[in-house]
Amino acid sequence: MTTTPETDSPLLAHIKRRIAVSGPISIADFMTEALAHPEHGYYRKQDPFGRAGDFITAPEVSQMFGELIGLWAAVTWQQMGSPPKIDLIELGPGRGTLMSDALRAVRNVPGIGDALTVRFVETSPVLRTHQQTSIMAYGIPATWHEAFDDIPTRSGVPAIVIGNEFFDALPIRQFERGEKGWAERLVGVDANSGELGFVRGRETPVTDALIPATLRATAKKGDIFESCAPAIAIADQIARRLNETGGGALFIDYGHPGSAFGDTLQALKGHQYHPVLSEPGDADLTAHVDFAALSRTMIEAGARTGAVLTQGTFLRMLGIEQRAELLKTSADDDQKTAIDQALSRLIDADQMGTLFKVLIGYGRDTTPPPCVSGVAG
């Protein structure tokens, strides 16, 4: 029988009890408990963003990021014929910084202010308060939703969907190649130490269907493949909505352009890497996004996608370097230095420029949005 040390947090004790009752749990179940537990989940109880939090996202680096995404959305709207109503949907909007910068950038675009309804997909009560405050000054109607599928589809109203660092926090499953087949990596409790640890389930051919055929053919013992069912489900929902109403989607996240082997699960706490299974609920958990899987899903649902771009390429295509020079014309020396540093962080290859990737999707009857190349579907 597993014992629970007195130092265990309520969430860790809960996870250990769950394992004691039903056996090892999937990594997806562990991530769900750690990030979304109703009382003790990481995203439910705190604001993790900024220097005082555990990580800094691109909108927190510079206003330029959100401004350019806002202009991307505005041009997408114009290319659809400037419809009188449009839903601007953001998945996992953090503090609302990106949306605030985007709305400030587009407020002078004729007609868009009257057309917009902002819809946030957000589960955190703490962050919802920040988001409401961030966009209050713009007078744009806004609603909040627990999930994308909760957003009502309005007849004749297209959608523009933005997801920045959203998919990386969705729960994944991991499968490891063994001597004869694939086995799921699980989270169990070590009988001696009483601590959480990774264990291997039974090898079974059933999980083979989750591994793309091109990878299965080259798999070696020890190879790990990650699968994110929630990401696939949401990409499918978005594609079907865009096909029905028209519109585009912009996904920005760190990940790989093609499906690949590798263990990318990691934890961050206080801007430092942290043991993945230690202190669930008090550290962020993420995994690299499989952009090829997202693209395949949208295409299979009838939508279209462009080629996967790096963040640096995407932002340069939108004119971030010119925007930086314009900002510097009214800045003092310290501000100019800060603008240059932020620009470098967003687009340079050794920083966020290549680590983060961009995928643009759109409805089958929608004109390709800006920055789409290598159209698929």
Describe the 3D structure.
It is a single chain. The chain has 377 residues and is an alpha/beta fold. It has 15 helices and 17 strands. The chain has helices at 10-22, 27-36, 42-45, 58-61, 63-79, 97-106, 112-115, 125-135, 213-216, 229-245, 291-300, 311-317, 320-328, 333-347, 352-355, and strands spanning 25-26, 86-91, 116-121, 142-145, 159-164, 173-177, 182-189, 196-200, 224-227, 247-256, 266-269, 272-274, 284-286, 289-290, 304-305, 309-310, 356-362. The strands form 3 sheets. Strands 2, 3, 4, 5, 10, 14, 15, 16 and 17 form a 9-stranded mixed sheet that branches. Strands 1, 6, 7, 8 and 9 form a 5-stranded antiparallel sheet that branches. Helix 5 crosses helix 6 (97-106), helix 10 (229-245) packs across helix 11 and helix 13 (320-328) packs antiparallel against helix 14.
Mean pLDDT: 91
In which range does the helix fraction lie? 25-40%
Low-confidence stretches: none
Tally of DSSP β-strands? 17
Q: Determine the strand fraction and express it as a percent band.
A: 15-25%
